[in-house]
Structure formats: C-alpha cells, structure tokens
Amino acid sequence: MRPPTIATVVVRVDAIHPEESAMRDAGALLGTGGLVAFPTESFYGLGADAFDADAIGRVFEVKGRPESKPLLVLVDSLDMVARLTPGIGAGARELLRRHWPGPLTLVLEAAASVPAALTAGTGTVGVRMPGHALARALVRAAARPITAPSANPSGAPPPLTAEAVHGYFDGRVEMILDGGATAGGAGSTVADCTRWPPRILRQGPVVIEGACASPA
Question: 215 lies in a domain?
C-alpha cells in the first residue's frame, strides 16, 4: 500500500445544519484541487472539482478505479447543470423537477468543457442533486459541480462512517467531513436521458414510468 503523503484532517460537522466555517474550508480545498470525503444519502463519497482534470485523476488514483468507469457529479442548481451540458430536454427537466433533490442521476450530453477523464470518453455526464443536506451544502460552498464516487478503494465495501473512510484514505485525501453514519442501501437510480424515453442504467429508489430497462 502506498504510504501516507499528506495530512488528512477529519472535521466533525452537523449533518442537518452543517457549520458554515467547515463548509467554507472544504469548498476552498476543492477549489485548489484537494479531495474531500463527505456523507451522502447512502455512503460516504469522494469529492473533487468536476472541471479539474488533475483532481479527477487523483480520484481515480486514490480509489484504484478503472479509467473506463465515468464519475457521477453532484450539483446544487439548474444553473450548475447548465455548466455541464449543452442542453436539458423537456423530459429531463420534468424528471429533475419531480425527483430532485433526491436519488436520481440523469445522464446527459457532456459540454465540451467537461474533462474527458470525468466522462471516461463517453461524451456524457451523470448529474444528481443530492438530498443529503451536508452534501448539498458542500457543493454550494465549492460553487462548482463535484464528483461523488463512494469513498473506498475499488472492490472494497463502501463506507458508512468517517472512521471507515479514514481507514481507507488516511494520508491520501485532504479532508474528511464527519457527518455521522450514513444509511447505506441502494445507490441512486441512473437514467440515460440522451434518448427518450430514458433508459434505466441502474435501478434504484426512483421508479420512472415509461422508461426502458438497460439490456443485461
């Protein structure tokens, strides 16, 4: 295992009403290429600036994630979605109106400014507005879309606690926001909205009537 190279700071934060100072510090870290682990509705995620190719590269390196697997992105507004895609169709807008914030990821055409590493060269990007207050506050503090793969090495169990993240990534990430234990369970529903009706790439908590199931 690679030896620790940086100091990892663990910051206890209220998961419902996260302290502004902690969010401000975490957002600033993301803006300078740092990695911040944080709780989501299911597991702890690993955040990086979605427009910073070097930071995205660190996410793949830290996780040992295959470069062929794209990263999903968290946003806090429609304006932020518009920075990631050249257009949002009427059907996709209705889905996000009904299900955001919440466990629904929409796969949209990626804007030219989105790093190819983020999309794994697919030309598409998965976008979600989280229902978890702390995760949403982190995106707002960063003022940019951030990545959110589970904060574990590829193949290891996804973490439910900050302690588990620390065990995985001490010395590998700049900050861990400890918002207490997460609920676990299924990840978000992933719907490919580059076509219509949308195609379900991963079944999850949100059921979309009329959508097509991805072939096995």
Answer: no
